[in-house]
Write the structure tokens for this entry.
Amino acid sequence: MARTVNTVVLAYSGGLDTSVILRWLQASYGCEVVTFTADLGQSAEDGGAELDAARRKAEQAGVRQVFVEDLRETFVRDFVMPMFRANTLYEGQYLLGTAIARPLIAQRQVEIAEAVGADAVAHGATGKGNDQVRFELAYYALKPDIRVIAPWREWDLTSRTKLLEFADSHQILVTRDKRGDAPFSVDANLLHSSSEGKILEDPAIAPDEMVFQRTISPEAAPDRARVISVEFERGDPVGVDGAKLSPASLLTRLNALGRENGIGRLDLVENRFVGMKSRGVYETPGGTIWLAAHRAIESVTLDREAAHLKDSFVPRYASMIYNGFWFSPERRMLQAAIDASQVSVTGSVRLRLYKGNVTVVGRESPNSLYDARVVTFEDDQGAYDQVDAQGFIRLNALRLRLGAAAGARGGAVANCCSVFALYGVSVTVEEQM
């Protein structure tokens, strides 16, 4: 295998894995390593200490070019917001907090590689997970000729013990808690935290309370409901309780409200793109509130068929993001349709937050399609002629009446049985009748 690499840009967190990868790249490829650490809000609770530590460790390892960048606003504005316009849920539950962060990290890596003249990029994702796919599909979409190095698919450091032995032999600083048996792994950003592995690998066992990073338990949440308002313009939230906020500041505010009310916990067994099932424990406090509010404002501003068509996009759109196809032409095409649907999605939503629940209690918009004159049970003063419903019903019933008439002659039953037979199911006429 050719090892000729002059400079590689490494997606670097400063943890055990990427610290070992940094030194391994230097030793195995004999190349200069440039580190890139993205601040996506993962260290908000420690005041940025994690990012400062990553910078120091890279410098101590002899890295001459260290990039640590605050991308929180870019992350929310250009990645999270477009995703939430679609009400995106993977497998009906997961708000894709990890998946949506990867294309931004990969994009910035490629930009740095071009700026410093690097001929390769590297990541610390393992060969079992989804992230290797997400990173590399993004790399190739943005720079088709880029060289990608994925150490977990090359080296022989196949266990935690071997990683620690490598760290010791190369004088890599490993914090004391890293030497213990970490009970689970955590990935976090401004949108969510994800916990998986080790004590969480058995899906039959409930996660311990220690797993949760972003929320208090619903049982410990206040006994009094909190009512808030979220303001939208063209499909995006722009304010909370009347205060205009930047994208990252708005999500930070929603996170705080969700945290103190025990909102946004999810224990999920999902289907990874690489073929296996995995169990993850997710916390998306602000995102859970955001989703409920967005669906509520859409309920009064979107045309019925437009809304239903848009909802039909969600499983496919979510899979594109989950599987790493953010920069694909099909995702861009769907995004254009989704964004077009949001032109009229402006207004305000009131929500009640209470012990893990988000309940919509009011929604209003200058573009509302809701007409009280039409839906009222009182005198509508001619806004709706109820006699029109008779013809509407008869026309929709026509095919059902024709089918029932044919069934009375045996035709419908015979047709039904032949369809079942195509799938190897034997059904008698008596069973159908």
